[in-house]
Design brief:
Elements: H1 3-24, H2 27-45, H3 48-55, H4 63-95, H5 98-103, H6 111-137, H7 147-174, H8 178-184, H9 187-193, H10 209-213, H11 217-229, H12 236-259
Amino acid sequence: MSSLSLAVRDSSTMLRRNLLHARRYPSLTLNLLLTPIVLLLLFVYVFGDVMSAGIGGGGGADRSRYIAYVVPGIVLMTIGGTVVGTAVSVSNDMTEGIIARFRTMAIHRGSVLIGHVIGSVLQSIMSVVLVGLVAVAIGFRSTDATALEWLAAFGLLALVAMALTWIAVGMGMVSPNAEAASNNALPLIVLPLISSAFVPIDAMPGWFQPIAQYQPFTPAIETLRGLLLGSEIGHNGWLAVAWCLALSALGYFWSRSVFNRDPK
């Protein structure tokens, strides 16, 4: 069997293993999925009128306009929340001895990580679909997006999920236990809160604007918002792709380096 065939076979096996774990222990995924849904309902139904009046340029309160604005940010936050579960799962594998057993088996070494990554990306996409259905149910519409823009939006979401998953895998591998892994991955949930997800950057205090502007979630949110709502994307598209590629490379080499270390 060639090296490529071995890698594909073993990665498929590890993917099935991770999907079975997610199916048998759904509580972690459901808990992480509830956070963006609760935030979506909170910001739309509790703060929606006030927030829309503040960012509407004098147009008055309009909850439907704020739903359109906030959903792209919530969708990206959903991915960040889902990959926290990946960090916890990887940490459990590292600390419970299964990785040490895999090291003694005749399997492709990278298949363990690839299985985690592909499984997490699939879970992230499913979580995004569920949150999207909730958004549609409460009034979100994307009537101006063309089929090509929908395809580009899906590609962007998959790219973001891949990038954040590799970072989460690295965080899980260096964490001594599941609790530490969850805490280490917390920035993946917090960063969208300090981006343009809920209010425009221009509405933030001047000293805070660079923090929101120069981080990976803001260009991704603005790009997704532009694709779904027909607003201007500008340079955010290229920035979002560059951030995703950089984070994917960083997470991949970090994870591989830790995984290939000899156990102590």
